[in-house]
Structures
1.
Amino acid sequence: MKAALRKAGQREVGGILMGENIGNNVFIVREITIHRHGTFASFIRRIEDAIGGLRAFFKETGYDYVRFNYIGEWHSHPSFEPYPSRKDDLSMLQIVKDETVGANFVALLITKLGPGGEMISTVHTYLPDGSKIPSTFKIET
């Protein structure tokens, strides 16, 4: 992800998060995709960019959708604070309320590189009832 942020520079970049449910509302991000269709102030998510990554992830994890599944989206705000915009909120609520997606929640990670090259990030969880909850995450190396 850091390499994608560096390469994108002032353009937004993003993708999807695929994870493992390890219990008690705790998820580990196991895979991310990187889609390069961003501009200075918007990241455009194209479903065709995500399908291949999702299919490969599901195959690798034995199609165990209860344990391994899509958990959300990520994108950068290189020129702004890493908090969801109104457009971000609406997009995530549209995903979580879409019955064909069938999600109980979706997470949105927004990130940017700080002055020292460190990642500065926030995560919010969106629920089908329309609520948005600030969430915690930890990067392990």
2.
Amino acid sequence: MGSNATIKALGDLKAGDVVKARNEKAEGWTFGKTKVEKTGAKGAIDWTDLDLGVYLLEETDSTGSDGKVYTAAAPSLIYLPTTNPKDQSSWIWEDDQKSAYAVWVYPKNSVNENKKTVKDANKQVGDTIEYTISASVPAVQKLDKELEENKGVERTYNLKDFALYDNLDEKLALANTESVKVYYGTDEDNPTGNTELASEGFTAKLYKGDGTNTPAGETEKGQKLVVALTDKGLDLVADAKKKAAGTKVFLVFTPTVKAAGITPNQAVVYKNTGDGKGTVDPQNPGENPPDKGQDTNIVVSGWGKIEITKTDGKNPILGTEEAKKAEFKVFGVTGGVYGKDEGAVIDYGEDNNKAIKVLDPKTNEMIDTFKTDEEGKLSIEGLHANNLADFKDVDPNASSLYTSYVLVETKAPDTYELNHAPIPFVINIKQVDAVKTETSWTKDENGNVTVHPDKKDLLKITLADLEKITAENSLNKQGDLVVTTDVVNIPVKPKLPMTGGAGVALFGFLGLAIIGGGVYAAKRNSKKA
């Protein structure tokens, strides 16, 4: 291995310095031939017939046999021979016969899991939904403060970058970052039950679709949310990781649904360990990660609409005057389809006050009463799909989710009878299995999730496209997320008063008067006689 001076110089080497010198092809450095091996069934590699020297060990593929992706072990230096830690006067040998020098290395891996979930059940357009990103934390260790690159670094641990990037679909919007919360811990079932990271532990930035910052209070479609941990946040997370290997970071935020259609979402996580300062500046993280980062899974939500035409059985009832407009409310139904399934129940709420509200695009306010227009038509847009909630299939008989809806007429056009019967309908994503399949989606050049070119004829994600699809096998005329139906009113007809009403009493008084008059006339006649 050379002279004492050479041995001392080799002993002072740091893996990070060696990696940097190799990558930059620095002068004065000599590297031998690279050897590449894959771990066997037991996760081991056995390199034999190695020359004496110093070796750089790097993990280049961290996918396990179970398909999970693990965080790669940090690069390390292997010295051959190596002093026996149990006997400083001897080397480590392969066997008791000292047939060859040997070193056993156990690189530490941690599962690299980045997951996206959504809570959107029974949420309509105009409501907020909840996204959660859970991201595993790589194995960490304390920084060597003697290293030149660590001087001036305020962190204690080598976790130097942790940032999350989320491109919101254009049908979603965040007015500000007040709803953005970060937690860390091991409870994956209840992310918000973990330790909340204080505001000084992270920054949250909103970017417009054009890459500029979104002013506070301004709602912009096609936004990008970027959350980056500060040095303080990085150390808190790293310390928790050191104490509990299963520690994860959880980002939770609540965008508002602004338009109907199919809404996919995916996040990117960028995390990095090593010496020196991080690559991401938390105060100015930028809208894209420094490199590709790690994608989460894709989650999808869907909202549709019902289109109504008011008729008298033959022709539309035109709403040219306010009195001629019909008014409707929509209520959710659990346990199936009302009037069809025995367990179906209309969720009227207390005092019939649980009518569904959706965003009125004209006033930007939530409304629960809908009027027909001059042509006798009405479109209620923004109702959540009945067969997909929280990115899971909905049991058609579920008791806690809206498995269908009913349309209830609350005011009939003037001179027409009120249609008292609740009208059931279902809003479904027809291609729900394709929607839930990762290969149905891809990313455009801006990182936005969009339909894969091979699936464009199958998947339509805007209502304008969805309306072109029709189906004949539904409760009404139903396409993908779009239902159309006629609501019939009959003209008001003269009615006889009901038994026991005021009209009966009036007839009673008239009858008495007639009888009384008859008695009086009889008396007069008898006197004359």
3.
Amino acid sequence: MTKEFLHSHFHLKDLGPVKYFLGMEFLTSKNGIYITQCKYALEIIDDARLLDATPNHTPMERGLKLSDKSNLLKDPGHFRRLVGRLIYLTVSRLDITYVVHVLSTPKASYRSSPSGCPIPKGCAWLRPVLLLKH
């Protein structure tokens, strides 16, 4: 009924059921529609150069404090882009919402760990996202 109504008012081309749109995969079954962002998460992991990293169930070390004495990021733009992509990923991954919030603070966006990882306090916080690839 909705398709007919839209066709009567607009010139449309029906491409069939949606499978992938704006970084989200849509799966349908008799129980309903499921939304996943597995492909999008893998793109983020690849962009962070962590495809070979080990997943971790703990998103962040306990009591994490970002220090003003840590090194400045070499490429803050890359970090901001990564955090922006992670914010979009929280649509389907509520377990990383707090970590992404902490990483999106102004202090985090300009600091890195002593190890030289372009991500504050190393890359361990991104490991829960790695669980999607297994």
